[in-house]
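We emphasize that the prediction below concerns an isolated chain of 320 residues; any contacts that depend on oligomerization or on bound cofactors are therefore not represented. The input was used exactly as deposited, without trimming of termini.
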Amino acid sequence: MTQPTVFKMRSSVPVCLLLLAVAIGSARANDNPCQDVRIPGFVCMNCTTLGYCIRDATGSWETMSMLGCQSDYNFYCSDEGTFGCTFQSQCQVPKRGPFSCQQAGLFPDPYDCRRYHECSDQSVDTPRLCSNGAGYSTLTGTCVLPRESEQCIKEQFTCSRSGQVGGWAPDNRYFYVCVNDTADSLYPLMMKCHEGFVFNSYSCVPDTRSMRIQAKESHTCMNNDRYPCPFRTSEMEYCKCVDGELEVMTCPAGFYIDPKIMTCVTDRIYQCSDFEILSCPNVSTKDEYCICIDRQLQIYSCPVGQYFNAETRKCQSESE
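Result of the prediction step, given as a token string:
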């Protein structure tokens, strides 16, 4: 079997591709998930093909086929964490489809719990992707859903005919209307009731009994991931998951927390190359390291149980 190959690409971490079979070329028009995803980067075209999303000069999205996987040996496509073909008990590539803004606001992606959509007043859709690998929760407005939660492993809508209406089970303020994509394909239009209203299977009604849906998902955080603190008092503070619980952390001197990427960053300009990995100044913990992006440093953490080796510039376990 071919050994894993590391590709140095514009990413904050090395991208590992297990090359079982490579086939580079343009995707067929009827096999173009990037026109729905609309975010540049790797994407699984299906269970056995890894693609890459690019945007051409006309603004159209195109999927480039990059890699084929040997599903006969339980190697399936992965576009999360490790990009390429990974050994899995079954294919975990989500179903995808079109999304069309109907109202201004934030809406969950009906196909992939990691994704959500920011819709403008002009019905312009800006797709978003949770960077921490978790699912997006409309209840908290943050990426906190465990990947094993029902919203991430089970489809939350049913479309059997055009015009069919249904409630969004994870949050009863949302509902959907099924419409035709093609003659034999349906997809849900995501909608939201006005403030103070909930969907009762047929229409939006006043929430007079204060029956706001309660969070069904577990609030256990994911180890080493960073989250916004509920009551942050400083631009240097953030919350980090330690043993399944959130703890308030403070960025080292000279760093502040960037709430968009939940990472400590510097304003100071450093003489370093893009995506160069190096030791962080003023950092006392052994599991953190810095990545240079645009000559500024961003702090990242090693996987649980590993520390950063400043000589090799890699994360490794204590036993190595």
